[in-house]
Amino acid sequence: MNGPQGISQPRFRNIGKPFSSKVLFSGVVMAQQDNERFSSVPDVDIEECEGRYKYILIKVYDANVTDADVYKYIVRGFRAAGFHADIYDNVLPVVEKNGLECECVGGGRIDHSPKNKTLKAYGYSQGFGRADHSITSDLLKKKYPDYSITWSNEGY
């Protein structure tokens, strides 16, 4: 949209819409009622024990909301999962129970050492591709603020 003298003017998507209380949540702005539904799904759920295991990064959203900016990422990782898809199969019903939908945006591995307070996200999923480990790392840092958390795109 061009203003006076051809100068580009910012676009405001919410002009003319009723004001609603907004809060910042997982990097996106959403209405308060959306925040409550999204809050019912924890950002991180991984094994608390020592070891290496598969994890996936999942984008959670409300399919009934037309604003593509209303979503959050969650991390799930479990030692018992033979495949990354096994993790997704366990998460999907929980997300849907909260009236939301989700899609796996990638996977990898997590090395977790509670004794040393370290976490490392790396690698990829053959079925879902490589997760954005920087997003995973940011979410892990919120749950484990006293840990040393790193990530790498190397490895399988």
From TrEMBL:
Keywords in alphabetical order: Differentiation, Sexual differentiation
Q: Which Gene Ontology MF annotations are present?
A: protein histidine phosphatase activity
What GO cellular component term, any one, is given?
cytosol
Check the record and name the InterPro entries matching this protein: Janus (IPR007702), Janus_sf (IPR038596)
GO biological process terms held by the UniProt record: cell differentiation; sex differentiation
Q: Which residues form a coiled coil?
A: none
Similarity section = Belongs to the janus family.
Role summary? JanA and janB regulate somatic sex differentiation.
Output this protein's name: Uncharacterized protein
Q: What is the source species? A: Owenia fusiformis (Polychaete worm)
